[in-house]
Input
Amino acid sequence: MRHIKIIFIVFILCAISSGSTLAQEAVEKFGKNRVQYKNFKWRYYSTENFDIYFYDGGDEIARIATTYLEKEFDRITDILGTISYTKTEIYLYNSPTDLLQSNIGVNENSFDVAGQTDFLKPLVEIAYPGNTEEFKNMLIYKLSSMLINDMMFGGSLSDMFQNSYLLLLPEWFMDGAARYTAYGWDVEMDDYVRDVIRNKSTKNLNKFSGQEATLIGQSIWNFIAERYGVGYISNILNLTRIIRNEERSIAGTLGISFKNFMKEWNNYYTEQTNFVDQNYVLPDKNAAIITSKKGMDIKDIKLSPEGNYIAYATNNRGKYRVHLSKTGKKRDKVIMKGGYKVINQEPDKSIPLLSWKDENTLGIVHNRYGKSFLTIYEISSNKKFRKELTTINQVKDFDIVPNGNLAVLSADRNGDNDLYLISLKRNSVKRITHDFYDDVNPRFVPGTSSIIFSSNRTTDTINVKGRKIEDITNTYNIFIYNIDSTKNTVHRLTNTLSSNIKPMAVSEKEFFFVSEQQGIFNLFKYDLSKGIYHQVSNFASGIKEFDISKDKQHFGFVMSEDGKDKLYMMPDFNLDQNIFTAQTKRQQYLNAKFVAQRLKKSREKKALEEEAARDSIIAENDVPLAKTEKTREPAVPTFLDQYSDQMGSGEQLIDTKNYDFGQQENSGRKEQTPKEEEEILDTNNYVFDTDVVSKDTRGPSLLSSYRRLKKESDISGPFPYQTRFSADNVVTSIVVDPLLGFGMRLEAQMNDQLENHKFYGGLLATTDLKSGSFYGEYLFLKYNVDFHARYERKSLFRPTEEFGYLQKYTLNTFELGASLPFSVTSRLSIVPFFETTRFWDLDPTSVLAPPSGPVTSAFDYAGVKFEFVYDNTVVGGLNLIQGTRGKIGLRHNEGLTDSKKTFSNFYLDLRHYQKLHRELVLATRLFYGRYWGANPQKYLLGGMDNWLFNNTNDTGEGDPLQQVAREDGSNILFTEYVTSLRGFDYNTFNGENALLFNAELRIPLIKYLYQGPIASNFLRNIQFIGFYDIGSAWTGSSPFATENSVNTEIIVKEGSSFKARIQNFKSPWLSSYGFGARTVLLGYYVKLDVAYPIEDLIQQKTQYMVTLGYDF
Output
């Protein structure tokens, strides 16, 4: 025990003396990849607070973002109580598929080193999701997330150092605040919280992760804003940065204990959940035919026209499958799969999309190599026909006309989400709508030439010029468009303040859609002949997807329960019933808030008019400018009777085989006279602000024009992208190298903004300042094939075995390699290299007498290394890894100076981390390596990486670590240590082959048992393990053979024709078992293992080993 205390005291003193930013070297590098399909030519707009970067096809998106972010900047910073001291760089991608090609953050949070200090950069990446309204929300969410992260972990260099160790915040705290800033009290969060209240415990918020943690956090911040006021959000955030504890910050700011605060939060949403459960119902659990796995989404279910089949898609973080099954049968068939599971990125969950052409033919829209394709699948023949969808960026939804060759797409192009008609036989495309409104969920109306769709447009004109982002809202209504009879207008079916989406027609007069008019997405039915609609379902959880067979005998829908998607089939559901439900508390609140805002705007309008009158007095020479009136939708649709007659005509049916894709006529917009604004708010027939035309036709004053011009002139560009480099992180660490000795390592990384160019540099200096190493590396990751160049130099001073004289060895390595990523998780690398070794004999007696051997010698090598790497691991915390990673490689060194120096090497390293329950993980590792050739090198088995106070075994004659006076022993530079084999010294066994297996049961006991938050960094990361190691190193016959290099010794006397074979019955295997503990101590991940070694089947003396670093 005294020896253990001395070890810890010495270690702590060393750690303190090396500073606060300490780390361990990464013993084995695996890592993820990014697959690039496109070459992005970046440009940017510059404003007072942002640099907005975009590439070809993204100019309009960039203009939207530039205008909107500058407008919202003050509101965001007021809510959060922080501001960035430098311009924020926003990188806009035209689609989620394009964003997946970005190199930014490719291997962040890998925990290869401990104590790494990252330099935060005000940078945000955003993919255009396909519609402007969601894009607006994403801009605010990403910007808020960056500002909060910068508030907590940024600042001065000393602040970064301190916060990287002392501040660890749960996911719900930061991500929830960002999402609340962007989305407020939205229906998705409202739905999720009710589901959590019903099915889960909310005592431990830290058990939630990913999107669940974000939504829970959003609900907490929403509760704070509603109960205490929005101003408290910034107070809590700023106090958290100071005292580094979110619970004490909430308690100190609100004046109540955190425990009582959580009770209030739980009661607040429990009351709302109980109200919903009293007025709504949950579907029959027996009706659920499919339940997804956690993290997997079920989307886009489609029933075949006759109801015999059901097709649906699943998307598991970007890896998707299309399933087909017979109605009423639970067994399904996977007819298509693609994509890949995304790690450390946002997956594209919008694909695949499905639509039936007929009972035997299913259309599937999907992505492949960054392009959109439409695949036609025939059930009877099991054949597929693929067609590329050109001229558009991304498809959000589509529908195929029954038994025809025409399809309608809701697709994005240059930032506009519009409707397109395409031919399935020819490469013909016709654009129907052409404006900045979002037109989604198009469906053909059976027996007519019409298309029904959902849109957030406030006018019936389909070619609105200009772009006002403030006109884009989350209010979606149902519209209908006749391909033959209408050219420039659409007809509105609903006129509400809610989101009415996913319309579908079962006949010419009967439509269904889902709406959150009452606060939950439920099914509604629209009767075109009567011009009225009513609610059909009253589910307590929102409908995410649905479909109805044409005979209305089958009703399928997707709904979330207990955090998982479920697919329900209800053949006996009454689709003609008329149901009325009370509004949820959220909807009641939003309606009241809207009325209050309406009154406030009315007062502000009056004040602005008075200000304009004063401005006109100041600017006497103002010239009035003409003001174009905007079209206003009638308060109550009056077209229904006439339009019903048009739809019923058989002459209006679409000829899909000979449809004319000629140019659409563009006529001017017809102006309409607006009606007076009503006193009472009619939420079912609401007239939008953009429809109302001001009676004041007088142009703006000179002062007003100057203000507007000043604001617009602040946007400059576009400018070409210029590569700029900055420091990314710095690492200072203690390293215990079994060959070089105890030393300090300093590493740094630099890269450009997009992380296409990366520079690494490192220096290792031992305490005697004699041995050491340094390296420099450059990575070029811009294209599909990644390139790297590396130089490394290692210097080694070793005493000779006989006289103790020093010998100096150096190894210089030059590499120039290329890697081809197959997916995010796998890649193949080819690395040609050149190496040179040099030897100096530093014997001081050589100056007195001529040496018998060379004083110096050098050898050159040329070679190549092939390596395949796979890594799908997900890091959940320090040393908390799940998944599989491994590498397999082949290396050849060809001796150029002397062919007798040639050798080759094969190696395999496989690791699997299996989750057992919550944080409990069983980690296993298998390593095998083999050297061969004229000069085979040696593996040294035993010990652990970064082992403090280590011992090295002397195996006697033939020991690869022995140095002979005046003899070049440069093979020591290629010697490889095989670890971890706990309980044994370095070099216990050595040989040209090595095999090692490790198993660890990792138990983060405190985190596993204690449900609440853990303030102590030491206790939060403490982990107990049980382990078993077994391995062997040999030359010649393997340890599985009866006679091998360990248990058999052959003695041959020089000059004699006889030889002796001695079998000593030693076991060729070394093994150990034991237990240990790991945790963070002064910035290091410290491991203490108690090992019980077994050699020759006999348990040896117990060994205590203290090491630094992660994993095995």
Notes: The chain has 16 helices and 53 strands. The longest strand covers residues 806-821.
